[in-house]
Amino acid sequence: MRDFLLGLAFVIGGGVVIAVARTYPTMPALQFGPSLFPSLIGGGMVIGGLVLALTRVGRLRSAFAGPRSQTTSYDYRSLLISLLPCALIVFYILTSEFLGAPLCMALSMLLLMQVRGAKLWLSLIVSIVIAAAIYLLFSRYLLIPLPEGTLLSQILP
């Protein structure tokens, strides 16, 4: 049931992303505009959500058609783990202006790796290196401004 509902949530979320991306302005000199990449991501979310939901339809039919004598316990921990990436995206949106993009990315990756059972030293190294690489790639090479944060700008010169 959980996978079916998560699949439907991804379908709805992907539809919203596509709808919002269609409102972006078009570039007259280009064949594609700023809506291309969000539309591709939204389409991937819709397709992935449909695949996830449709693979669980058979299991839902058997669950509702079968006898109701046994009560099954619901695994809330795995549901919370499934929703953690969405919560971390909200965390990034709300705190990146204050903490900065590299620190938010590193904290998010560290938490995701710890929840999945990685060793702490490995999680620290990987999250710091990958966050720094992503930040340098986006800000220096692709020239996409990422929030540097007010927390570290007050501490560092």
Main features:
157 residues, 2 domains, 7 helices, 74% helix, mainly alpha, single chain
Could you characterize what this model shows?
- The protein is an all-alpha fold and 157 residues long.
- It has 2 domains: 1-68; 76-157, no CATH class.
- It is 74% helix and 0% strand.
- Helix 1 (2-21) packs antiparallel against helix 2, helix 4 runs antiparallel to helix 5 (101-115) and helix 5 (101-115) packs antiparallel against helix 6.
- The mean pLDDT is 81.
Q: Would you tell me the overall average pLDDT? A: 81
Q: Approximately what portion of the residues adopt beta-strand conformation?
A: under 5%
Using the CA coordinates, give the radius of gyration: 20 Å
The shape, in one word, is: flat
Q: Which residues form runs of ≥5 with pLDDT under 50?
A: none
The helix tally amounts to 7
In terms of structural class, how would the helical and strand content be classed?
mainly alpha
Termini separation: 52 Å
DSSP summary, beta strand count: 0
Biggest sheet details: none
Helical percent range?
A: over 70%
